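To close the chapter, one final illustration. This time we ask the reader to focus less on the individual chains and more on the assembly as a whole: which components sit near each other, and how the overall shape emerges from the parts.
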Amino acid sequence: MSLKIRFKVIAAEIIVKSTTLKHHTKYFLFLLIIAILNGCGSDSKDYTQHKKQLFTFGTLVDISILDNNSQRANQAIDSISSEFDRLHTLWHPWNDGALGKINQKVSTHSAPVIPPSIIKLIEKSKEFSTQSDGLFNPAIGQLIKLWQFDQLDNEEHIFQLPPTDSIQLLLQKNPQMSDIQLSLNNDNDYILHSSNPSIALDFGAFAKGAAIELMMTNLKNQKIYNALINAGGDLKVLGSKGDRPWRIGIKNPDYLLNKSSQPILAAVDLNNEESLFTSGNYERFFEYQGHHYHHIIDPRTGYPTSGTRSVTVLTKDAGLADAASTALFIAGPENWPRIARKMGIDSVMLIDEDNRIYLSPAMAERIELLTDTQPIIIKL
Amino acid sequence: MINSDISTSQIRLNLTDGLIILLAGLSTLWLYVTFWSFNTEIGNAEILVVQVADKQAQEYSLRKDQIIDIKGSLGSSLIEIKQGKARFIHSQCRNQFCVFHGWLTTAEETTACLPNQVSIQLKSGSSQYDALNY
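The assembled structure is written out below.
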């Protein structure tokens, strides 16, 4: 029984058993207390919440599961934890995991065998890359490496700018997902063929979403139907938070640099299976000679994208949300509506470098802005 | 519609009834303040939760100003609690992203020193948000 219901029962018992009160006074008091208790918030607590924070996948992952079966919830959290660790190793582009080995072989013109989880990443990435006119391009791993974003967690690394001619050389080689083909060999394994040796696969703009999507399927298979997984600020929900939707605050991108600004820019309620992903120029970066170089590289220029501060995408598929938030960030204030249409995304918020807020009509209907800034509504 | 069968004498309350109504009202107000209304505003967090790797999380009151020395995977992380806010003031990492993040002021806000595997997160009894997106 929830706390609120318990209070109602106690209040009712006290009033009904009272011998000093007249009948109508009892009735009046009973209604008063029930009315006030009913008005006190709407967050029913008829569930048990299980929470765990993990250091995995190169970030912080917060898992919240609402389930009255503690054993089932804790088992689910443990299985998610191991699965995140496993995928992090498997999908890391430069370590000795499966993707790291694939990248080594592609660079030496070999045709590596591809494990099933990476086949899905490649197939989906090819689709998103085509839809985004190549703005989402996981084939530019060598460019990402040239910018040393693979070294952000390396304590010993000293950052410097990549040589301009090296960037230009990679741009000329023009690695694209369409240069990759998959085929079956005699052992029925998928092997990867690349017509472009400059390709290196880095799924940094997609892996988190793809992993969260897999974890949610994992949870449903374990009969968990109300949950939230938040991986470094990007998240997906299942079901609801008791008798209300999951309520998410979207952080103000200005807040990191200017602590006097409002910490939360907007709020949104998420329904079953919805994902909310944001790409921002404040997330992963390094400073060099007083300049800020962030990790979202424009595959057309070879340099960190300018013009956009953040893009937030709301859609069901977490993998699509992840890829689209990157593609729309690169598309920028001028071109994001066209790319959003092509990728099948209808709920978008883009904040440009001058802090103008652009909303798609669908996002404008969902989001509650907590700022005085008037948004610009752009039809898709 | 008012029930005309109830006479004036029937709805007149005596002193005891009045006191009980007053007490009930005050009790209800107290219940509301205690269990539902506090800490729903942004920036009104109550607790700092510190997580080190996969160890049991530790909680600290944000009402007591202090500097906490947390031992992480690489060494020490110093966390300052002041006036209901919290921040990293030093950590055993070269990039110091956690220090650069500055004060956490809002319930559910979090930051971490990933190399040292130390995270800090603000919590409140009834946060307005279930999670933050960024």
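Chain B touches chain A through 48 residues (CB under 8 Å). The helical segments of chain B are 8-11, 15-37, 97-101. With these observations in hand, you are ready for the problems at the end of the chapter.
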